[in-house]
Design brief:
The complex is a heterodimer of chains A (141) and B (130). With 141 residues, chain A is mainly alpha-helical. Chain A is built from 6 helices and no strands. Chain B is built from 6 helices and no strands. The model of chain B has no long low-confidence stretch (mean pLDDT 93). Classes of the chains: A mainly alpha (141), B mainly alpha (130).
Amino acid sequence: MNPVINYIAVVVSAVAKFALGAVWYGVLFGQKWMELTGMTEAKAAEANMGVTYGGAFVSYALQAYIMAHFVHYANAQDAKGGAQTGFWLWLGFTFVLLVQGTLFEQRSWTLLFINAGYELVSLLLMGIILASWKKKSPAAA
Amino acid sequence: MQINYLAVLASGISNMVIGFLWYGPLFGKKWMALSGYTEEQVKSMNPGPLYGQSFVAALLTYYILARFMAGTTTVMHGIETACLVWLGFVTTVQFTASLFSTRPKALYFLDTGYQFASFIAAGIIIALWR
């Protein structure tokens, strides 16, 4: 019952999420995000960027690896099925988590929109990559 | 697809009960120290709508968890699916949020521990009560 994992698709999914993050939190909403979180260039410079970005990439790769399992459980065979799996995972787990955090920490709803939007687009993207890029099964060869 | 809505509701309730314990007697003091909230600030929050909205959001989580657990028949399998969801879509998101913020890392462990306990409880409830 264990799914055949296409590790190349997992790595490509993680790279896609990472690249989307650079665009999302850079060009698109970087200014707004810094304003809302109170993060400044100076504070950001104090952190070890290698650890921050390396940690983020490892975390994205883990997410993609687990998502490959859910794409298999959901029996998603094409881009549409993969996007649907991504949507349900986002709605049920990531979105709710972020909404509850916003409620209890009384944080800005605009910030929720930025963060949840990033997670939605990236989970759709990863679902599409993982579901449509299947390893050729040995039986079919 | 057969969904036991009572099991979904029970999971939502268990999530609230664990939350009251976790952020109350267990780690309430620690959470306030780490997040910078004071007793006054916490008291000034309006708990009714806050818990109500959070409860409704939690029901959505457990409904979707129950859908993903449609073929689950054993408690071990339920725990496994709940663990995978937590690992893939909850703790990874909390972890990266923590990486890109200046908040104390201990807060990440405290918050994600609560999520872990809640997901395990829901995985057991939904697997057992079919």
